[in-house]
Amino acid sequence: MAKVDYAALAPQLLDNIGGEENISSMTHCATRMRFVLKDESKASNDEVRKLDGVVTVVQAGGQYQVVIGNDVPLLYEELERLVSVQGAGDAQDRAPQGNLLDRAIALISSLIQPILWPLAGAGLVKAVLALATTLGWMKESSSTHAILNAAGDSIFYFLPIVLAISAGRRFKTNEITSVAIAGALVYPDIVALAGTGDVTFFGIPVVMANYTSSLLPIIVAVWIQSHLERWLKKVLPGAIRNFTVPMIVLAVMVPLTFLTVGPLMTWLSSSISGGVQWLFVVAPWLGGAVMGAMWQVFVIFGVHWGFVPIMLNDINDKSIGYSLLAGPLFAAVLAQAAAMLGVMIRTRSKKMRELSGPAALSGFLAGITEPGIYGVNLPLKRPFVYGCIGGAIGGAIIGVAEGATTIFVFPSFVGFPALLNHGNVPLVFIGIAVAVVISLTLTLTLGFKDPVEEEKSFLDSSDETDAEPTTALTSPVNGTARPLENVADPVFSSGALGNGVGIVPSDGRILAPASGTIVTAMDSGHAYGIKTDDGVEVLIHVGLDTVNLKGEGFTPKVSAGERVARGESLVDVDLQIVRDAGYDPTTILVVTNTASLGAVVPIVDGEVTTTSTVVEIDH
Q1: Could you report the per-residue pLDDT of 348-379, keeping only the tens digit for each?
Q2: Residue 252, Cβ neighbours under 10 Å: how many?
Q3: pTM confidence score
Q4: Which of 170-174, 400-404, 468-472, 520-524 has the lowest mean pLDDT?
Q5: How far apart are alpha carbons 422 and 57 in whole angstroms?
Q6: Inter-residue contact 129 to 103 (CB < 8 Å)
Q7: Which of 440, 449, 398 is closest to 423 using CA atoms?
Q8: At 49, is the secondary structure helix, strand, or coil?
Q9: 596 sits in which H/E element
Q10: Residues recognised as catalytic
């Protein structure tokens, strides 16, 4: 099938439904654009159906529905650029579903996901460079070292700029404007102002902070930018919109970020670092435990910079010459690296193993944990907790031993010499070993939810080597299967979106019919797209027109970008809420790329369970 030009389709579609002035609201579900038109008679159904990329048109429930297929979000993005109306069902305006912490972790992980491999590669460059310097193979003062260090360090130093790209895509902003905001945060003159006390903006005092390598400030800034941009596009005339929107956004967002995020982060950092310093005075073991457990959490939230000036001041002060705050960091960092190693050993997922191995190596050798934290430990959750537990116990031992660094280094194997000149050195290394062993042991024994990649199909026969590859899809829900043509929805029943089955559910637990990657997860929780490892594109649509419930009765368990195994929960549905609202709960399973496959054969035989095969696919 030829690739559809959605930028060209959007204005053509608008023209044929009466233009922007005929649209009361606009949103989309998993496969359809859903318009509420002021006058449906102004829409030319025949002309809309002829447009390249349109499957068909359905007029039902007071909505003018244009069926597109899996790529409907691409068309929606193009329409957003052309019109200022949005529907109440728009994803940007709905409250997130599910546990707040889980949603926050999923958001951060999704923003980091596109840059994981460059982070891992850069971390290894720094690890090898640190090892070469420690062993005397290369002088730290050499130009060769400077060039290689820039290669390994740039993505970490300019992390806000890199994150601005993925955040801009996630929040649907102008990505170049987002990058410009991030660039201001790490602009050399701004970095030089960090920590100085005489900074004002039109007379308003500005508390400057160092935003290099920071995570949250740019994410928050781009999120605010997305709302500001949408509002400006609505109120500004089209003749000046293209250049005035970025001009106003930059003029507002850069000062706003410095005026709000900087003071907040500085206050939070100083409060936390002051409290931890006090703990080291009254209870060194407790101070060490807090630093060992919480250091990576401080890094995630960007408040760790409050500790760095204190560490540097203590090390450079001739009357002190060491930093007690820095000693327990070795337990914190190496415990997280040990958890990554445990994931590499235990996981059966090839992709997770390929990521966790290099991430652990970079953590142990260079103290670079970002690839492993954001790509392994934090998404899997439990390994991150195990690392914090190991770090707390090891940090407490280091605190008792008065472990401290006499030079400023990244906590890592190659940074060990910095620990040799203060405190009970043998006990310090015992603390580090305890942190590593506890974290590794907990990861290996208690485990985690493994994103295991299953075999392509449990129907494949090892002794039928000449057979065509086959994929089996199991029922996503317990219930009664029926032919797709008997489903009370003309788009699904016509087969316009592909072959499949309908299942009248007997319970509300919806499971993945095959292993693969979640490519679509509607915020309303009613529809999910899965792409299997062998290229089958599956849509699971829970109920008919249930997008109108706007998430009520749906508790999503997965997000876009996650891997799922066959039988893993996608969403829990309160079927009573669906029925009481007057909607048909029939759950649709359809193979949306049927046309590109050899044969897609539904197997419909009445009662089914989530272990029953309902569709067989020959490639």
Answers
A1: 887 788 888 888 988 898 787 877 887 788 88
A2: 15
A3: 0.46
A4: 468-472
A5: 75
A6: no
A7: 398
A8: helix
A9: none
A10: 29, 541
Q: Are 558 and 612 in contact (CB under 8 A)?
A: no
- Tell me how far apart the alpha carbons of residues 606 and 583 are, in angstroms, rounded to a whole number: 22
How many other CB atoms are there within 10 angstroms of residue 24's CB atom? Answer: 12
Token pair of 520 as six digits: 């679509």
The token duo for 408 is 């400023």
Contacts of 334 (CB under 8 A, 6+ apart): 363, 364, 394, 411, 412, 413, 432, 435, 436
pLDDT in tens, 577-599: 999 988 999 999 999 888 888 77
Residues with Cβ within 8 Å of residue 4, at least 6 apart in sequence:
52, 53, 71
Domain spans of the chain? 6-88, 100-114+283-452, 470-618
- What per-residue confidence (pLDDT) applies to 112? 67
If you average pLDDT over every residue of the chain, what do you get?
A: 83
Q: Report the CATH number of the 6-88 domain.
A: 3.30.1360.60
- The stretches of 381-476 forming alpha helices (DSSP H) are 382-400, 425-446
Cα dihedral 451, 457, 461, 465, rounded to 10, equals: -90
Task: Compute φ and ψ for 618, nearest 5 degrees.
Answer: -100, 130
Per-residue pLDDT reduced to its tens digit, 295-330: 988 877 766 666 765 776 677 666 777 888 889 999
Q: Are 518 and 560 in contact (CB under 8 A)?
A: yes
Per CATH, is 470-618 categorized as 2.70.70.10?
A: yes
User: For residues 110 and 447, which has the higher predicted lDDT (pLDDT)?
Assistant: 447
Q: What is the pLDDT of residues 479-516, one digit of tens each?
A: 999 888 888 888 888 888 888 999 999 999 999 999 98
CB 415 within 8 A of CB 331: no
Instruction: Dig out the tokens for 271 from the structure.
Output: 């409060």
Strand partners, 472: 616
Task: Determine the Cα–Cα distance for residues 502 and 484; give it in Å rounded to an integer.
Answer: 5
Is residue 322 helix, strand or coil?
coil
Query: Cα angle vertex 490, ends 485, 491, to 5°?
Result: 95
Cα dihedral 246, 252, 257, 263 in deg (nearest 10): 170
